[in-house]
Design brief:
This protein has a three-stranded antiparallel sheet with strand order 1-3-2. The chain contains five helices and three strands; from the N terminus they run H-H-E-H-H-E-E-H. The chain has 104 residues and is an alpha+beta fold. It starts with a helix and ends with a helix. Helices cover 63% and strands 13% of the residues. The radius of gyration is 20 Å and the shape is elongated. The chain has one domain (5-102): Orthogonal Bundle (Arc Repressor Mutant, subunit A).
Length: 104
């Protein structure tokens, strides 16, 4: 199954993992300890984040560390930016209209 960055950020657990890894790299057990869900569920979330290109795994001895790679989040920023521009323009138009109505 082909996944994209939007699927990764759609889930609150994956967003929480992304936020945690922004502060520091962590091994899989440390990530799992932060959540009230099973380790297999965390592994599934990690797999999806890897498939989406948001994290990579580095093997260090017996531990596997998750490293953030947030270049793909640029796709989200680009998508959001188009709507920010659209709504900013619409709200500016509304502001001008309301201001002109007040002066009448």
């Amino acid at each position: 199954m082909r996944r994209d960055v939007f699927q990764a950020i759609a889930d609150p657990t994956r967003r929480a993992i992304i936020n945690m890894l922004a502060a520091e790299q962590m091994n899989l057990n440390a990530i799992a300890d932060k959540f009230d869900i099973s380790r297999p569920a965390i592994s599934k979330h990690i797999k999806i984040l890897m498939q989406c290109g948001l994290i990579t795994i580095r093997q260090e001895g017996r531990d596997r560390y998750c490293l953030p790679d947030y270049k793909k989040l640029g796709e989200v920023a680009t998508w959001v930016d188009q709507y920010r521009k659209f709504w900013t323009s619409k709200l500016d138009d509304l502001d001008r209209f309301l201001s002109s109505e007040e002066t009448k």
